[in-house]
Specification:
- The chain has 13 helices and no strands.
- The chain is mainly alpha-helical and 328 residues long.
- The chain has one domain.
- Helix 7 (134-159) crosses helix 10 and helix 11 (248-264) packs antiparallel against helix 12.
- The relative contact order is 0.14.
- Mean pLDDT is 80; it is low at 1-7.
- The chain crosses the membrane at residues 29-46, 66-88, 139-158, 164-184, 219-240, 260-283.
Amino acid sequence: MILKALKTSPSVDFCKNHMKKFISILKPYLRWLILGLTAFFLIHTLKTNWQEIAEIQITSTGWLCLALAFVVTTTAHIWAAWVWLWILREFNQTIKQRCGLHIYLKTNIAKYLPGNIWHFYGRITAVNKAGVSLGPATLSVLLEPLLMASAALAIALITAQQKYWGLQILCLVVVLTGVHPRILNPVVNHLRKIKWKVTSSESPSAFFYQLERYPLRPFLGEMGFVSLRGIGFLLTALALMPFTPQQIPLLISAYSLGWLLGLVIPGAPGGLGVFEATTLALLESHFPSGLLLSAIACYRVISVLAETFGALFAGIDQHLVENHKPSL
């Protein structure tokens, strides 16, 4: 009774409202603070190791590795589009595969716009026009980054150095438990309430979709996506700096953690700066800072080029499909 009275008391509601206002005021400044700190760290490292970076020369084998990194990274984004279609099927929604691939690849590049939500908005709008209900469309784009984050953390734990294997196994069990529908459904619905409010013209029941089973296939698919991205990073690093096979797990683990933090920390759009600073901090004690910074910067360029190529390819393919439709 006391707890119930506290929950409904005006003073508690007053505190909650003021806390929400304070967080909303602080959030933009926090984003700029994170961006400023990461930019300062990267610029300082660049300034310190400028001479080493200027002396880097890429061999013909190195250029081949960079080309392969581009192909693998592009393949990763196409694979991510397939996995997103699997997520839609988890909510009993279907869409033509080619159309779904077009939607995902064309909207994916919008994540670099300020706000970091426009790829979500564009994807929801496009898939809704393609015949998918608004509720599952919204839940699919909210569930995807949660599964990606869980997959990246799982890979980081698996490939990390086995110094604390008991703790790593425990954390891995927690991650695998965290994608269970009993945990994911409340989280996804809470995010839906925060980011997208149901308007008066929409039925609230349209959003009452939930996962009915453990999303094993999408989760494994996202692990494949992060693994492909990691291979692209390895190929990029191989073009600029030597490393031994024994160092591959270290590179994959650091990449996965850097990519994860770039995904979840509010900073620059697309994780710009956060990924670079995290990966550099995790690996600079194992590799020359100048070579490492160059490899990370090259990988960012390759990643953006791969996403741009995917969007252009999807747009051209969609145009060709529409032009070859038989007239009625």
